[in-house]
């Protein structure tokens, strides 16, 4: 059975770039935009054009550059924002305006100090106005995660009638549990008249570390677009990580969901984003962290050397990592030492290995990690005859 496509909406250059210290200039954004297109993202959110002349320029230049992906610009539900975004997207082959408004009680009561009906009126007016510039209009219901489902369904129905092509259901504060977020998407699928005319989109934040789980739950329950960033960067604790959702869908064929991402570019793209934004990737980050395919404890190393699948569920080459690594520390066993020694030219017999291993432990207890040059020193200072080495 053919798999259902989940569109990947990349917001590294918008939500990701909002992170303090991650600001990019237009030239840097263009390099990343080109890479994101090569990676296979379906929609590229290039910026928030009204926010600054620099962001307007970036969206405009990215619109000229990008050939296949949809280029999207963010706006509030405000006419001036929408007009400026339309202008910035003028050269895009496939332009999308992403407009919206807060729908939760706290947004309506405290931010806008208005009523639910007035928010619906502004939402419809924004979508209608955006439609006068572009065909493809995405509506976001900010803080949908904490919005009452019945009211959210009324908002969705109204903006679909006004022509919205995509409905973004953000868990803006990262509050939802996966079951709850999935149930919200299911509720909208089942209760919004005209929902077949629009795509439901997940935009989840990571305040409780649930952004990826919530997005996958949304997709399982009928969402067909996921908004995410490379390395999961974004406001506060970040957004859903692109590499994580893509690999979850790939590694779980039972979900019957697929993306257009060339996964072999994931590791390199992660490095590019990290370098350009000056934002290091934590070593234990899933998929793209430097330790994601590194094995350091003796038990795991022995298992992986015998059969990679014992401790690895992803082939590192699938995400652009040439091979898994066997890291030598004081927790490593003989199998790992023999493996690494062989890689640098020493085929040790069992007896030789016992002697070299004792020497190795002395080195490893004072050094965090044993590297290739240390292996030479360890072997050569062990009480074994070098000429007896195979
Ligand atoms: O988190 C959020 O709600 C957003 C919207 C502007 C889409 O980033
Ligand atoms: Zn966001």
Would you write up a description of this structure?
This protein is of the alpha/beta class and 390 residues long. It contains 14 helices and 12 strands. It has helices spanning 26-39, 53-65, 79-88, 105-111, 116-131, 149-161, 178-191, 211-220, 242-251, 266-277, 298-306, 334-343, 350-366, 372-380, and strands at 4-5, 7-10, 43-47, 70-76, 95-102, 136-142, 166-171, 199-204, 225-228, 257-258, 294-295, 325-326. The strands form 3 sheets. An 8-stranded parallel beta barrel has the order 2-3-4-5-6-7-8-9, surrounded by 9 helices. The protein has a two-stranded parallel ribbon with strand order 1-10. The protein has a two-stranded parallel ribbon with strand order 11-12. Strand 6, helix 6 (149-161) and strand 7 (166-171) form a beta-alpha-beta unit. The structure holds 3-methyl-2-oxobutanoic acid (KIV) and zinc ion. Residues 15, 170, 172, 203, 205, 235 line the site of zinc ion.
């Amino acid at each position: 059975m053919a798999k259902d496509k989940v569109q990947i909406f990349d917001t590294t250059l918008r939500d990701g770039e909002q992170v303090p210290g991650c600001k990019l200039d237009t030239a840097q954004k263009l390099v990343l935009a080109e890479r994101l297109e090569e990676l296979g993202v379906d929609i590229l959110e290039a910026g928030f054009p009204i926010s600054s002349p620099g962001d307007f320029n970036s969206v405009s230049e990215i619109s000229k550059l990008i050939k296949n992906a949809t280029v999207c610009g963010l706006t509030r539900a405000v006419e001036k924002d929408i007009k400026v975004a339309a202008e910035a997207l003028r050269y895009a082959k496939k332009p999308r305006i992403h407009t919206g408004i807060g729908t939760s009680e706290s947004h309506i009561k405290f931010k806008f100090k208005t009523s639910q009906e007035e928010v619906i009126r502004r939402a419809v007016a924004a979508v209608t106005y955006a439609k006068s510039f572009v065909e493809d209009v995405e509506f976001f219901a900010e803080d949908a995660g904490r919005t009452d489902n019945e009211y959210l369904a009324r908002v969705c129905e109204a903006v679909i009638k006004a022509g919205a092509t995509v409905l973004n259901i953000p868990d803006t504060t990262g509050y939802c549990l996966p079951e709850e977020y999935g149930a919200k998407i299911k509720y909208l699928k089942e209760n919004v008249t005209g929902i077949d005319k629009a795509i439901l989109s997940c935009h989840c934040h990571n305040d409780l570390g649930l952004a990826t789980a919530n997005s996958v739950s949304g997709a399982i329950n009928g969402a067909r677009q996921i908004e995410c960033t490379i390395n999961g960067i974004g406001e506060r604790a970040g957004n859903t990580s692109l590499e994580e959702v893509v690999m979850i869908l790939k590694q779980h064929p039972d979900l019957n969901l697929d993306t257009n991402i060339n996964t072999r570019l994931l590791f390199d793209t992660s490095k590019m984003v990290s370098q350009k934004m000056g934002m290091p990737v934590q070593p234990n980050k899933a998929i793209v962290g430097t330790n994601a395919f590194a094995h350091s404890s003796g038990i795991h190393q022995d298992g992986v050397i015998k059969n990679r699948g014992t401790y690895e569920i992803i082939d590192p080459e699938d995400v652009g990592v040439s091979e898994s690594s066997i890291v030598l520390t004081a927790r490593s066993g003989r199998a790992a030492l023999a493996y690494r020694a062989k890689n640098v030219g020493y085929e040790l017999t069992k007896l030789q290995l016992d002697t070299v291993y004792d020497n190795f432990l002395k080195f490893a207890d004072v050094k965090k990690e044993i590297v290739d040059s240390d292996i030479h020193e360890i072997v050569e200072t062990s009480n074994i005859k070098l000429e007896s080495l195979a």
